[in-house]
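=== RUN LOG ===
request id: a7f3
mode: sequence -> structure
chains: 1
length: 368
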Amino acid sequence: MERIGVVGAGAMGRGIAQVAAQAGCAVTLTDVSEPALEAARDAIGASLSRAVRKGKLPGEDAAAALGRIVTGTELACHAGAELVIEAAVERLDVKAAIFRELARAAPGAVRASNTSSLAIREIAGAAGTPLIGLHFFNPAHAMKLVEVILPDGAEGLAPMLEQTLRAWGKTPVRAPDSPGFIVNRCARPFYGEALAMLEEGAKPAAIDAAMVAAGYRMGPFALIDLVGADVNLAASESVARAMGGHPRYHVFDALRRQVVAGRLGRKSGEGFVTPDPGAAGPAPGAAERIEAALVNEAASLLAEGVAEDDIDTAMRLGLNFPRGPFEIARAAGPAAIVARLEALEAAAPAHLKGRYAPAAALRAMESA
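=== RESULT ===
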């Protein structure tokens, strides 16, 4: 695909536009706000200039990439596009309205949403038109992973989409059309178990130190502070609602208190471990506990037809984890993971009962 449309000139939209343009595609970038489009062109230009200064991109290639991007405020600009990716605000009504208009403005295009929290079938149902999901990760120009969500009937698009994404330097993985897809769903225990241990009296810095010692670039509390406690809370609540309030997705009061108090992390100047985490040695058993929960969540996705390798790849690339959940399971042994989960379940307080019940696929791995 060489003619690409992007709807929404925020951080994700302009990142996707830059990726496509750098790969040689003609790009139309639209937004309802002309100032947002001007800011997007400035941001893309600045990003390309940084790449030139670092020796990662020849100056003439940067200029050519920027020249391939045409902006406009009307969705009619995408007429003739082969692929249009929506990267607008995470509101069902807004996305549905965009896709209804795109069905008229670009009827021959493959139409995709970059949503991170809404089901593709839900958007398609509200819009009354078929679409797919292409979930990029922020910053889109740097992160390699793209989750590809293909509803029933759209599977035939996979080869063309995967070829296009690989030409853009991305690694596509097939994800289910279920809450959080792969990464945002499997990431819940990384944060959730840390918050559970905080509830039990462990220190955030000690939990983070345990994960760093286990090879992770940063611990869960540092990551919450980086993305924002408000963003993490919204994602946690969205997945919890979609999963019917199952205790595996319990939203912890400590996270809500951070948001209410305005301790959002780096953007507010104060968070769980921001600005100063304090000195702390690794919390005993923290890494093993969090990784057991990660494995269990990943195992639950196998029942939805997701491949082990795709889950491992998604978690490594989407969250920069040192290893995927099934790599953890193979190294530790499924029986050891099950034993940890059973011990946690036996000790769980009433509001978390059922949280640690081993997934059927994990039980099957244990007995294999």
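=== NOTES ===
The first strand starts at residue 3 and ends at 7.
The first helix runs from residue 11 to 22.
=== END ===
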